[in-house]
Design brief:
The chain is mainly alpha-helical and about 280 residues long. It has helices at about 5-10, 15-20, 30-40, 45-55, 60-70, 85-90, 90-100, 105-110, 115-140, 145-155, 155-165, 165-180, 185-195, 195-205, 210-215, 225-240, 250-260, 265-270. Helix 2 packs across helix 14 (about 195-205).
Length: about 280
Amino acid sequence: MTSVPVDTAAKDISAWVKYISTAQIPVLKNTARQISALLEDEEKISARGITTVVLNDPMMVFKILSYSQRHKGRSQLQDLVQVEQAIIMMGTSAFFRDIPPAPLVEDTLKGNLPALAHLLKLIRRAHRAAKFAVDWAAHFNDLHAEEVLIAALLHDLAEMLMWCYAPDKMNTIHAMQQADKTIRSKAAQQQILGFALHDLQREIVHAFQLPPLLSKLMQDDASHEQRVRNVTLAVNLARHSANGWGDAALPDDYRDIAELLRMDVDKVMRIVGAPDPS
């Protein structure tokens, strides 16, 4: 994988955005393996079958949606946020030809196993957030629940990419926060990277021309809207519960979710799988 020029990338968000815009986005080895298996059995090659594989990998989802935006046909009047729709529009042949499941995350980080472990943990957390979000979307009878799922899955995309492209810096940030629990993530990121990952995320979404709806759903500062708040609270719960069910931030999460879903806190704790405090 092409390296980022250290003299500009270390503290320059625009250099990172430029690099990511031209770099190959890595995917999980299991994604590549499953896509290869689909190719070996033509009866399994369908938009639905491909989608099932792709949704297990946030970075493959990103590759598909960004490709879809760059190759919109003149007759396509709306942006595609759902993976299956995007695959149907591009066609399965274009998917296999133009969106290769490579390079592999595991190869990219084979020389930095701590970073690989942190990235895989972050991806698991993203899946957990996506599950919470889509479950709550069903509570509201949201007919486009996959949009909420995708937004939760990609909410921390910038962090995932930086674990791939700047693993040493990300390890340093993690070590700082482990050594001093009072250090806020944004402050640590500003010190080591020169910018906050939230700002990088916004620039990536703009550079790759991701659908405005998806961009909106991923913006925590618009959380007064029900669907956005759904995503924000799902991401918060996944992040805090990853630290264990004793995390001090969880009671506030439960109260916020109870307000969103209009149910009592005890029921919220049951539906999200929190242990009985008694």
